């Protein structure tokens, strides 16, 4: 985890940088509309998948509530070469989705004024939002409503 987002008491066990990543179904649908072959959600390994939000709505969420759990957004998820691995076969499947992401989801284009302050390089491709639970040990379940508590007003 990037130390600039650690308040000193977050639990991030077994995490690749951040304990949670949220991605909306509409965000994946937007990507898939740009690809010749659609990709499944599991290619991006989100912990939380939301429906009913617009494409890239999660980019603006600073704080959300799901059930009794409150989550703080840290920064967009920087996507790596693992997104090019076919999850069923465990094999690299070509240059997608990174090639397509480079055309419209690079940090310098998505958040030109903010990427440096978040520790994100200008050519990083962004897809999904990293989260940290603010009130640990809460239960969430499939079907819980997502409430946007605070948004990033750009």
Description of the structure:
With 154 residues, the chain is of the alpha+beta class. The chain is built from three helices and eight strands; from the N terminus they run βαβββββααββ. The two termini are 25 Å apart. The model has no long low-confidence stretch (mean pLDDT 91). It has a six-stranded mixed β-sheet with strand order 2-1-7-4-3-8.
Say how many strands there are: 8
Largest sheet: 6 strands, mixed
Uncertain runs with pLDDT below 50, 5 residues or more? none
Specify the helix fraction band: 10-25%
Number of helices: 3
Mean pLDDT: 91
Can you list the strand order of the major beta sheet?
Answer: 2-1-7-4-3-8
Q: What is the N-to-C order of secondary-structure elements (H for helix, E for strand)?
A: EHEEEEEHHEE
The radius of gyration is 15 Å
Shape: globular
Structural class: alpha+beta
Could you tell me the strand content as a percent range? 25-35%
The N- to C-terminal Cα distance equals 25 Å
């Amino acid at each position: 985890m990037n130390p600039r987002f650690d308040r000193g008491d977050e639990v991030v066990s077994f995490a690749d940088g951040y304990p949670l990543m949220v991605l909306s179904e509409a965000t994946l649908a937007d990507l898939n509309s740009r690809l010749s072959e659609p990709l499944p959600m599991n290619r991006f390994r989100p912990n939380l998948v939301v429906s009913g939000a617009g494409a890239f709505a999660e980019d603006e969420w600073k704080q959300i509530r799901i059930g009794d759990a409150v989550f703080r957004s840290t920064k967009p998820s920087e996507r790596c070469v693992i997104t090019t691995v076919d999850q069923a076969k465990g094999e690299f499947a070509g240059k997608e989705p990174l090639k397509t992401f480079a055309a419209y989801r690079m940090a310098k284009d998505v958040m030109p004024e903010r990427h440096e302050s978040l520790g994100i390089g200008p050519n990083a491709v962004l897809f999904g939002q990293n989260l940290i639970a603010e009130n640990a040990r809460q239960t969430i379940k499939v079907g819980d409503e997502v409430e946007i508590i605070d948004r990033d007003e750009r």
